[in-house]
Every structure is written in C-alpha cells, then in structure tokens.
Amino acid sequence: MEKLMHLILLVSLSELCVSENTTVVYGMEGETITVSCAYSPKENKWREKSWCKHVNKTECQHVVSARRFWLQFLKKWNGNTSIADNIHTGVLTVTLERLQKQDAGLYQCKTDFLGEARTLKKVKVEVLGAGVMETQAPEEPKILQSISRLPEAHFNAFVCIITVLLVAKLLTAVLIFTIASRQRSGATREGSHILNQHQRLPLTVQEN
Q1: Which residues, other chains included, contact 204 with Cβ-Cβ below 8 Å and sequence gap of 6+?
Q2: What percent of the chain has pLDDT over 90?
Q3: Rounded CA gap, 185 and 165, in Å?
Q4: Beta-strand (E) ranges in 90-152?
C-alpha cells in the first residue's frame, strides 16, 4: 500500500513540476554561469554543435558554434559567450560571463549535420538583479509583495511546492483512513467469532 502511495506521489510530482524538458539556470548580473549539455559521443561525435537563443517559439538565433574536427576542447567565443566540446565524454559546455539583463531568455544546445538539427537541451536563463538579494524586514505585506514580484519560474516553483504538500497530506489521510478501516473490520470479525462461541456453549451442556 505504501509503495502505491509513493508511486502516485511521484507521478503527481512529474505532472505538476515538468511541463517541458527545459532546465532553468539562475545567475546574478555581472557573474558567470555554465551550462553542460550531454550527448552520445558515438552518434554525435562529428556533428556540428552550437548554442542558439530563441527569438520566438520556432526560430532560434545562432550565438556560437564549437570547433570541429580538431581541438574541439578549446573554447570558441562570441561576445561574452564561449563554447567547448569534449567529444570523448560527450559533454558540450557553454559559459556566459559578465551576465546582463539582455542575456536572459530561452536557449538550446543543438547539433547539425547535412541540414538535420537535433536539440540536446533547452535552457532558460534567468538574470537576477542585485536588488533581489537585498533582505527586508519580516513584515507580512512586504513578504507578499516580494512573492508577487518573483519571476514566472520562481512563482511556478512556489505553486508546485504548495501543491505537492497538499497532495502529500491528502495521500497521508487516505492511508490513515485505510489502516483504520482494516483495524475496525478485523475487530468486528473477532467480536462475531466470540459471540458465536458463546451461543454454542448452552447446546453443548444440554447434550451432556
């Protein structure tokens, strides 16, 4: 029964928290973030690998491509973005330095070969300003205001956590109710068995 509850909880978590296969990476303005995109070396060893930024749902604008055929592990730069490819371990590494607000957005690692493109990973970059780290007095109106100003990804994570807690409480209540019902059922059967024994006792005495 407990395994079934755990399975239901895991399924609920997957449905609530994963709307698409996108990794969210947070970074402060002026700092550096690194993104790793894994791939199969056997299938993608000689394919061109690149990093692009989505300008809309269907178009991804090229930012930088990894070196091909020789010295793939050396970084290749475009502005504040660098890319390096380790074809032996199958890891494409993208680094964004000196983050700025305009660096925020949806990106993807991808491979190309003869016009065929494959997405390795989608990454949503969130750039946080210095004001986000400022602490505030623990007044309830300010806490509510700070929550309302969180980025959409933060708000979704907050809603996800609250929903998971409610689902966990519901599953716990169902489990307790099921155990209690089984215990009451067992007690009822035991009482009926004792009552039947008492009813049979006078008949045995009369036969003697």
Answers
A1: none
A2: 39
A3: 30
A4: 91-96, 105-113, 116-128
3 state SS of 75: coil
Strand ranges across the sheet with 60-65? 22-28, 116-128, 105-113, 48-54, 60-65
- List, for residues 123-152, the tens digit of each pLDDT value: 999 999 876 555 444 444 333 333 333 444
CA neighbours closer than 13 Å in the CB half-sphere of residue 151: 15
Q: Are 192 and 200 in contact (CB under 8 A)?
A: no
Whole-number Å distance between alpha carbons of 88 and 120 = 16
How far apart, in whole angstroms, are the C-alpha atoms of residue 36 and residue 49?
13
Looking at residue 197, its pLDDT comes to 61
Backbone angles phi, psi at 88, to 5 degrees: -80, -40
List the structure tokens of 75: 């970084």
Mean local confidence (pLDDT), 90-108? 96
Give residue 69's pLDDT: 65
Three-state SS for 112?
strand
How many CA atoms within 13 Å lie on the side-chain side of 183?
Answer: 6
